[in-house]
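BUG: 3D viewer hangs when loading the predicted structure for this chain

Environment: internal workstation, default settings.
Expected: structure renders.
Actual: progress bar stalls at 90%.

Input used:
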Amino acid sequence: MRSAPGRGHTGAALAMTLEAASIAELASVVAAHHARGAKLPPVSLRAVRGVLAHTPEDMTVKVEAGIVLADLQARLAARGQWLPLDPPKPARVTVREIIEQDLNGPRRCGYGTIREHVIGLTALLPDGRLIHSGGNVVKNVAGYDLQKLFIGSRGTLGIVVEAVFKVSPIAESWRLVDVRLDSFDRAAASLASVQASPLTPVVLDLHNLSHATEPRTSVHVVLGFAGTREDVEWQVAQARGLGIWNPSDLTHEERFWAADGLPRKWSVLPSRLCETAAQLGGAPFIARAANGVLFTRGGPMPPKPALPDALMRRAKEAFDPKRILPDLDL
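Structure tokens produced before the viewer hung:
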């Protein structure tokens, strides 16, 4: 275990980070902090990044949580498989960060979030004990389903050190199309036509990251399809019938997340997404239109979400009574 200075999203120096060489070593350090009641510094698991088991015939993979997503996807792709997740900056983000921060991307529409793919999890508790939830196979119901507590916990209850995922075959074909519209009313009508159609997109995005030659008021609806070549071609033809036919890509996603700093996040009913986006005053945004999740850089502050504060405090007290891990942000 060694210490190194951390860096924030803007490059500013942060508190020293503990870089774990192994899970056993990290457990010892955490237990020592717990015994003293001392706050644990930020922990990096980037040296703990092995693929522990990949069983292609069962479509499962077990990894150490320090592995970077792009590296995991490359290992799986060699056997024609992938983990159906596409959070921002896959060449940098680790499995631990994806789980603890509940990260996802535009393919959330078709493939869901991380909790749909985790079938087993190992976490290091604040007293240095390791706990295991789930298992190494898909049909596993042994023990309490504790892994759901750690998904999105932001490291406040424990440190995720290993995970088991169910993976999927890489689709034979993948296509993206979009349409540029000149108002949020027309964007809302376009989204409604998609949702009323037989289309099953894996991407359904809304954004205003227009090209330099487009009006600043332009709004784009983006559809993505994956599957067999015949199915994808059929869906693209159906989308053309709805007026969505321009060849597209996910450049808007890369451009948005390339900026420094954390964006603001809105969570609204999908039916109110365009109404909410129209109130942002032209601030750059991207949105998961099927889920009502909108990220923006600028514009008004989103309302504070209603959280089960009492329940979250009870969980924190049960797992980390000495408060050696990050505190809850309520």
